[in-house]
Model the fold of this input.
Amino acid sequence: MLIIGITGGTGSGKTTVVNQLLGYFKKDEVVVIPQDAYYRDNSQIPLEERQKINFDHPDSLEFSLLVDHLNRLRRGEAIEMPIYSYLTCLRAKETVTVKPAHVAIVEGILILADPTLREMFDIKVFVDADADDRLERVIKRDIAERGRDVLQVLERYQETVKPSHLQFIEPTKRYADLIIPFGGENRVAIEVLISIVEKHLRK
Done:
């Protein structure tokens, strides 16, 4: 199984790149493992405190579970992937069954920050984007999907998103095998990535 890590700052266009890949290959050839499913369960913390969690800090993630799940998929075993809600900041009781495939794409802002997880990737991709463009996407997404207003998004951006990006995410660019500027709009870089995956699938 080929494991691809696709990372980049919040709002950089990672999901667009992933969707471009998914649109090119057959459904049973590729599985996607979003980092967001592996945020720690915080059921022991009151809701008001949970809503203050810095989701852009590596400590917010259960990397050990993600590593275990990737190892299981690589061995040909199915996994029960968690479901995480940004509205409640909790894991759901339900899980999603993910079966092994030829290619696994792991997508998330912090996936190259953990050394053990980083070593598991056969290809490491960093999706790069201008900070203003990322902020614009974050505002639109958080209002539409996470129940926040503009002021809440801007406050969170200044207090946690921007500092964490500079401290934990931007430095991981040096680990990338491929850097994709302009996200899903960079057709040349995406075609290079597709050709690498095709080569693996032909083996």
Q: What stands out?
A: Helices lie at 14-24, 47-50, 63-74, 115-120, 131-145, 150-169, 187-202.
